[in-house]
Amino acid sequence: MRRLGDLRTNRRSLVAAVLLLALFGTPILMGAAAPHAIRALAPVPPLPAADAVTEADGRVLDGQAPANSAPVSGSPESVHRAETIAPAELPAPAEQPAQAWRTTDLPPAGRERALAAPTLKPHDPGWVARRLEIPALGVNVAVAMAASAADESFPPHAGAYILRSSSQPGRGTNSYLFAHAMPNLFKPLWWASPGMQVIVTMSDGQQLGYRVTAIVRDIPCPDPSKPKPAGLPPVLANATHCDLQWTLPTPTERLTMQTSQGFNRNYGAMVVIAEPDW
Fold first, then answer.
1. Among 88, 122, 188, 252, which is least packed by CB within 10 angstroms?
2. How many domains does the chain have?
3. Distance between CA atoms of residues 249 and 246, nearest Å
4. What is the rounded (10 degree) CA torsion for 255, 261, 267, 269?
5. Per-residue pLDDT of the chain (278 residues; tens, 9 = 90+)
6. What is the domain extent for residue 203?
7. Does the predicted model carry a pTM greater than 0.90?
8. Does the residue 102 lie in any domain?
9. CATH number at residue 148
10. Alpha-carbon dihedral of residues 260, 265, 267, 271, nearest 10 degrees?
């Protein structure tokens, strides 16, 4: 009987244990795994707004921060602030005159050359310029004196021309040369920069060396027979007369090379100034 009672007691204990396991066992197991579950389900920080613009680089982000952006800290000096700009508030690009700013059709660049000091012949009227080169830009054009007002109004496409009221190089004053903005003429002047070598070959074979010292853009000389294009800078849009100061004589030796900036005179002109390097 005692064994039977013990068996009944053990069976009751076993049933009670099963009941306890059924009631409390699952929450205990879940509680053991809860820390890992919390870490896995922690909220991910939101990405910046799709139109956020960082002051660091000014780019519009596509819903994500730039790869090289610095982490945001509490210090105003170290925070790259992100400002949300509505699409309507983004400034519209200014309308610009249509121009062919292509570099693929330009002549190949060359190297500078060492030049001997020239023997100047300022009083010889037969000592004249025959060719002009800018090695860094690939410019290599024939040079001649303009023959008429028609040449000065619309020069031939054969090379660069010296204004009739100007001077031949090597005379200690301004030599004003002009040519069309064509790849084989003066279009490469659009990419001129100070320090570039300019070489003028004279009729006796001597070469005069110069260095670019200044680039002046947007020189007005309006053409009233043609409408002015939209988007011109005020100095061109409001111009009523030609700026002829660059054609005038100077007290020292100078080359002034001029070409156009667009399809007609209303687009303005530019000049590249070079001074002697001898």
1. 88
2. 2
3. 8
4. 0
5. 544 455 455 556 555 554 544 444 443 333 333 333 323 333 333 333 333 322 222 222 223 333 333 333 333 333 333 333 333 444 444 554 555 555 567 889 999 999 999 999 999 999 999 999 999 999 999 999 999 999 999 999 999 999 999 999 999 999 999 999 999 999 999 999 999 999 999 999 999 999 999 999 999 999 999 999 999 999 999 999 999 999 999 999 999 999 999 989 999 999 999 999 99
6. 129-276
7. no
8. no
9. 2.40.260.10
10. 30
The answer to whether 105 and 183 are in contact (CB under 8 A) is yes
d(CA 99, CA 231): 12
Domain co-membership, 194 together with 241: yes
Q: Does 117 fall in a domain?
A: no
134 phi, psi to nearest 5 deg: -130, 90
Q: In terms of DSSP H, where are the helices of the chain?
A: 2-40, 149-153, 234-237
Report whether 190 contacts 272 (CB < 8 A): no
Assigned token pair, 248? 């005038």
With tokens 């700009």, the residue in question is 85
Residue 238, SS3?
Answer: coil
